[in-house]
Amino acid sequence: MLGRVASASLRQTRKISTTAVARKDLVQDLYIREIKSYKPAPAVKDAHVGAVKDFAAPSAPKAPELPSNFAAELAAYDAANPDLADAPAAVATHAHADEGSVSGAPAFLAFLEADAEKPHHAEH
């Protein structure tokens, strides 16, 4: 009995191993044959003419030039009175003047430091 089981398993093993070796992958063979037989078309000498622009080097930039009367313009700038720095403060004062409550940083800080009134609760 042991001999039959051993010979049956040996036959099954032979069948599986022999069929696996004999079996070929047809898709892989077709793919490899097609790749080997592929011949790319030769490239045309002027194929790039319509797709690529000719290179033209950009012109050299000009060096910046100082104005001829640079010293006079610099002196005029130094002598100018900066009026624009006061303009936003004047606009802000008009906006707070309508409210009538707090105007200026010291008044605002004094308002923040003042003790808040405690609400009075009615006893029931």
TrEMBL record:
InterPro entries: ATP_synth_F0_suH (IPR019711). GO terms for molecular function: proton-transporting ATP synthase activity, rotational mechanism. This is ATP synthase complex subunit H.
